[in-house]
Amino acid sequence: MDFLRNLFGKKYPVATPSKDISWSKAQELLAKRDVRGLIKVLHEAKSEDVRGGAALMLGNIGDPLALEPLIAALKDPASSVRQDATKALANLGSAKAIEPLRAALNDPNEQVREDAKYALSRIKTDRDVVFEAEAKGDSDRIKSTLNDENPSVRCDAIRALERLSDPQAVDAIIIALKDSNLSVRKEAARALGKFGAPRAVEPLFACMRDDDENLRAYAMQSLVMTTSALESLLKLLISTDDRKARNSAVDALSGAIRFGALKTDPRAAILVRSAIKEGWGKVETISLVGLLVELGDERAQRLLNAAQTDDKYTLERILNSF
């Protein structure tokens, strides 16, 4: 078995002069690429050479089905089997083997520790895949990692798509707004501001009703950068009974006009006046009057004064002029 172990981390033809009948059985299973049969040999063979050989054969075949049995073999009582399991795991290259291999760095056997270290150097994490794909500008490859089981990888993927600025990525990021993980949803809400895509407006509005304050803030920031969101913000402000959503709409609208995509938009004052007129009486609408003052509409200050003195006649006259 020593010559097999020297072929560390490589695909190799497995052969041995052993007369062990179980070894012969393993050879037959390898010829048939019978992964389940080899897993059984790995679990049940009495000879450590045969168990180690089965591990190497499984690594040679490279079937993901062998992953968990090979991880379990890292705890085999025989150090030679543990060593062969590390080599096989290096060939499989699954990121799921990273933590078990890190644990093997504390193995009492020096060679197992060395082999585990080398195996770890050969395994690419899913985060590595994201970064390599970004370097190549391969947004399709990055989008495929949005289904990764690790939320950190999904967040990395969203950030990479944002940096690439590929408009074809918008739909994938919109889907991520419904991810089961809050951090991924927040990353998606934040990233959509980079694209300013009209089709992201409604999904971002849905986020503004979320219980998480930070997610609402990220959605608001993205809406601020989306010019086409203005009419929708006003519609939400006027029509919804959800006070939290109205507050978010006011904040987003104010931010858009003061700092964002609507800072120099000539429609801003017209639409704010419309929102004030249609939504008058709602507490949140009053705050828009201050925004109208900033936009230079002289009627806004008179409207504030009339509201403070409960001058209904003046209020009605000014609102009708809007």
List the helices and strands and how they pair.
Layout: H1 2-6, H2 21-31, H3 35-44, H4 48-61, H5 67-73, H6 79-92, H7 98-104, H8 110-122, H9 126-136, H10 139-144, H11 151-164, H12 170-176, H13 182-191, H14 201-207, H15 213-224, H16 229-239, H17 243-258, H18 267-279, H19 283-294, H20 299-308, H21 312-321
Helix content: 55-70%
Order of helices and strands: HHHHHHHHHHHHHHHHHHHHH
Number of domains in the coordinates?
Answer: 3
Residue stretches low in confidence (pLDDT < 50, at least 5 long) are 2-21
Structural class, by secondary structure, is mainly alpha
User: Helix count?
Assistant: 21
Number of strands: 0
Euclidean distance between termini CA atoms:
89 Å
Please explain how this structure is put together.
There is one protein chain. The protein contains 21 helices and no strands. With 322 residues, the chain is mainly α. The chain has three domains: 121 residues, Leucine-rich Repeat Variant, CATH 1.25.10.10; 72 residues, Leucine-rich Repeat Variant, CATH 1.25.10.10; 125 residues. Helix 2 packs parallel to helix 4.
